[in-house]
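Quick illustration for those who missed Monday's session on complexes.
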Amino acid sequence: MSGLFLSFEGIDGAGKSTHIEALAQALRARGRTVVLTREPGGTPLAEKLRALALNDPMDPLTEALLMFAARRDHLQQVIEPALARGDVVLCDRFTDATFAYQGGGRGFDLDVLATLERWVQSVPATPLRQPDVTVWFDLPAAVAAQRLAGARVPDRFESQPQAFFERVAGGYAARAKADPGRFLRVAADQPRDQVWQDVEEGLRKRGVL
Ligand SMILES: Nc1ncnc2c1ncn2[C@@H]1O[C@H](COP(=O)(O)OP(=O)(O)O)[C@@H](O)[C@H]1O
Ligand SMILES: Cc1cn([C@H]2C[C@H](O)[C@@H](COP(=O)(O)OP(=O)(O)O)O2)c(=O)[nH]c1=O
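Prediction with adenosine-5'-diphosphate bound:
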């Protein structure tokens, strides 16, 4: 069986975590070996970089470089070996998050991000590794803010004002527009069951489920 790479995106509170585990179970029930992972993170080194990026003050270039440094290690240590074995990789966030948060949210130069993307995602198997499908939980920033109010201790990103998340959401929309074949947009402002049905149906249409 050939490997499959799925990423999950959306602003904080959009509902990714709620549905990734259910999807892992659905895939396992179909006989697939599933690697559940996340960015920034997924390896011991990348988890250290995550702790820095989420908690320590830094300028936008440092932030972008840490995200891509973590990604490079994650690709080499976890994602590429898993895809080579024929596993399904479910990754909670990938490069679209960098374009949305560092690009849209922080206003960092998108051309620089695109250059880093090409460098970091060039691997022996392919000149530009990208997810096969990106499930995008599209949720208005105001709804996400309501969901997260008081729910968890906010990190450097979650403590940003709503306007930041409006820019992040715009960053995702631009990435989706540029690569509509890869993006599966799910309207996340619906009851959990309906969101899950839309995820399932979208992935079935793409032959993933
Ligand atoms: N469809 C939904 N409707 C209402 N609340 C939801 C829905 N999906 C998730 N939630 C709740 O919203 C919060 C954020 O969801 P979560 O899955 O952690 O988002 P993310 O991983 O994208 O940040 C959680 O408290 C979760 O229980
Ligand atoms: C992958 C990535 C995440 N982030 C941010 C988005 C999130 O606020 C944060 C961590 O993501 P996430 O794992 O979704 O957080 P949580 O543990 O709260 O579910 O990192 C970036 O800013 N750039 C990136 O490239």
